[in-house]
Amino acid sequence: MSSPVLVRPRPAYAAADLLAAYLPGSFYYSSQGGTLLADGVHSVVRRQPGNAHDSHAAAAARALTQARESGLEDPIVAGAIGFRDDGQASLVVPAVVRRAPAPGPEAHAGTATAPTPGPWNVTPAPEPEHYVEAVRKALLHIETGDLDKVVLARALDLTADEPVSVPPLLARLVQANPAAHAFAVDVTAPGDSAARTLFGASPELLISRRGDTVVVNPLAGSRPRSADDAENRRRIDDLRTAEKDRAEHEIVIRQVVDVLRTVCSDLDVPEPEVIGTPTMWHLSTRITGTLAAPDDPASSSLAIAEALHPTPAVCGVPTTTARDVIADLEPTDRGYYAGLVGWTDADGDGEWVVTIRCAERPSAPCACMRRGRRRRFRPGRRTGRDKRQVPHAPRRAGVPRGAAE
């Protein structure tokens, strides 16, 4: 008579447990799909030096194969990738991964009364007059036909009297909107004088993959939320019907659909709808696709995320020209802002979001933060008339004034 095989049960966690367990250096990610907390580094994911054609997805696939062969159970790659193809990236195979269901109202238990730093000393970067000059130059590119659209970003450097701690700020982000894609990633790079943490709560799902099903949820076209219900209804109706916002949204949807058609056998592209966050209303299209070949490396969640990035919502049209104009006109490199953050597993499943509503700060005792804003410009737009665009997309935190991104 054979003996039964004994299997150690997996520990069960609540979302609140993982949120409370987060410390700088960990990888935290939560959304409606669940909560993930990863610690330690089994291996660092790097592209091949000197190989311009090596993608982050290919490097991740190699690292996951090696992790499986070494005996690591259910490995994932987690981290963040910067805005530019040749920019920063911080991807690792964590040593330990814990999972829990999606956050609910209880996710912030024990953290709701955590103090927040402040008041803040706020310094714009660049100064307003320099930003206005960048806008003028961007509009010249549009008028000469170089560009159809470009998205310029700027930052705010914030300094408080007390050190800024990431865990209570992350907890408050989850508390404010449990449905958001909340994240915290160690993005420390060789040569940094202190550890750096990228954290935020993005409303924009770049790609989610489960088996042969992918979901992409572009957002383009926004209004601020009002405290008055009647005014909110007016803004929602205006967002649904405004020609400018519908046109901008259609630009993003066309590009997303073009990419998904290369890997999907079927696509469902519904009409746009308006969704809300605690502070904003967004024009949203939730696109669902069925992968034609789920085992194809080009169909992994990270490979599709790289193909989709950057969307016109954070860059412009045409993409290459817009990205070059952004590099020329913005005084500092965007770094991780408007990039992507998330995770992928060895089967290709995973979730990646656009890195907006985010901040970056040193994990060493520090009382400084950096936030950012993005502005969109298209033919026919007048400067100074962009109040109806996303006004507060946090960019970075904790970088001393003038430091490189």
Beta-strand fraction estimate: 25-35%
N-to-C CA distance: 65 Å
Which fold name corresponds to the CATH topology?
Answer: Anthranilate synthase
The number of helical elements comes to 8
User: What characteristic shape results from the CA principal axes?
Assistant: globular
Number of strands: 22
Strand order of the largest sheet: 3-5-4-19-20-11-12-17-14
Helix content: 10-25%
> How many domains would you count in the coordinates?
1
Structure report:
With 405 residues, the protein is α+β, with helices and mostly antiparallel strands. The chain has a single domain, classed as 4-Layer Sandwich (Anthranilate synthase). Helix content is 24%, strand content 30%. The protein contains eight helices and 22 strands. It has helices spanning 15-21, 56-69, 128-143, 166-176, 229-241, 243-260, 301-308, 319-329; strands at 27-31, 34-39, 43-44, 76-81, 89-93, 96-100, 121-125, 149-159, 181-186, 196-202, 205-210, 213-217, 219-224, 264-268, 273-276, 280-284, 287-291, 316-317, 340-345, 350-354, 358-362, 368-377. A nine-stranded antiparallel beta sheet has the order 3-5-4-19-20-11-12-17-14, with helices on one face. Strands 6-2-1-9-10-21 form a six-stranded antiparallel beta sheet, covered by helices on one side. Strands 7, 8, 18 and 22 form a four-stranded antiparallel beta sheet that branches. Strand 4 and strand 5 (89-93) form a beta hairpin. Helix 2 (56-69) packs antiparallel against helix 7 (301-308). The longest helix is centred in the middle third of the chain and has 18 residues, at 243-260. It is globular and about 75 Å long. Residues 380-405 have low confidence and may be disordered.
